[in-house]
Design brief:
397 residues, alpha/beta, 11-stranded mixed beta sheet, 17 strands, globular, binds L-homoserine
Length: 397
Amino acid sequence: MKIAILGHGTVGSGVLKIIQDSALHPFEKDLSVKYVFVRPEKVDQNELFVDDYATILNDEEVDVVVEVLGGLEPAKTMIIDALKHGKNVVTANKAVVARNLKEFDEIAEENGVKFYFESAVGGGIPWIINLERALRIDQIDSIHGILNGTSNYILDTMTKTGQSFDKVLKDAQDLGYAEADPSADIDGYDIENKLCISVDIAYNTFVKPGDHLLKFGIRNITDEDIKYFKKHNLIVKLLGRSFKKNNSFNFVVEPTLYTPGQIEAGIHDNYNFVGLRGTTIGKLTFNGQGAGEFPTAHALVQDILDLKANNVHLKRDFNEEFSLDNTTKKKNYVVRTSADLESKLPDYDIQKDGNYYHIAEIDTQKIHDVVNELSSDDKGIFFACISGGAYNPWIEK
Ligand code: HSE
């Protein structure tokens, strides 16, 4: 198979290395990279580098286009052009997949080619393929995951070292985990994209990232918060979760607290974790490296090998409709704020501990609405959900 890679950043160069380096793989006769699409100023650096996309589109030898440019445009247009020119496309670009999955899939179908995106969710974890496999038999009603390597690295390192958020974010960027704009990682947008893609496949629907989906990130977390959670034997993770019942589903990205024995609490460094619940398989979970050069490139090359072997992925039409309702699940939350929280929630069971409040049994929509309201008075407000199985140090008092 002849391959063209669009982009030569961290992941693009990883794909090139895996395919070209015989020490890293056993299939040099089967796959070869014919072009790498780069910016004009880089063209002279390597004989494979080109800056003219038409060369790739019009080369009938190219079977697969690997899109690793990131961002929405020109990635979207280039993916569509490749599909329309009869090229299979594989991509790690979760932002563009989350917004256009249905359209890409339809265009691929019309042109007799495939569109695969294993690496877009969970990096190196074989998540999409196993989600699709579970769906061959089961209905899936629940997905949850630590789906961002950068935020997990930040929270884990803050927990292990007591260092400040800013210092650890800088280290994550230096390690190549973070997105160019760190807000995608720390404000929950990246997890939102990945949860949208997972939900699309799991529920056979199409949920676009946007403001109606609840999300709150870790931008405001402090080393004092981490210390406070540790004092109560709790570990914080940035989690995305969705649950479907009958005709509605909930969808939220928010910091979530676990006790050390829970599986999510043991996901360290840049590792990701993702799980589903299916009718016959029950709970099924995966973990592995969710970001970085080789884990992500590995998943891209797996997609290419699936194309080569003609391993056809599960077909979805993404046409089922469900309403979004984040009021159906009540959970316990911890909020740290200097604003007047109690007056906003007069009917709730709230315990105060300095600037930390424990609120029992509140629905997800309500707590997000209240925190958003209070954030005009307290821009540094932070909150976290106490996961179902976690020991609740306030309630047990
Ligand atoms: N910035 C992303 C992360 C890269 O940290 O998980 C992989 O999607």
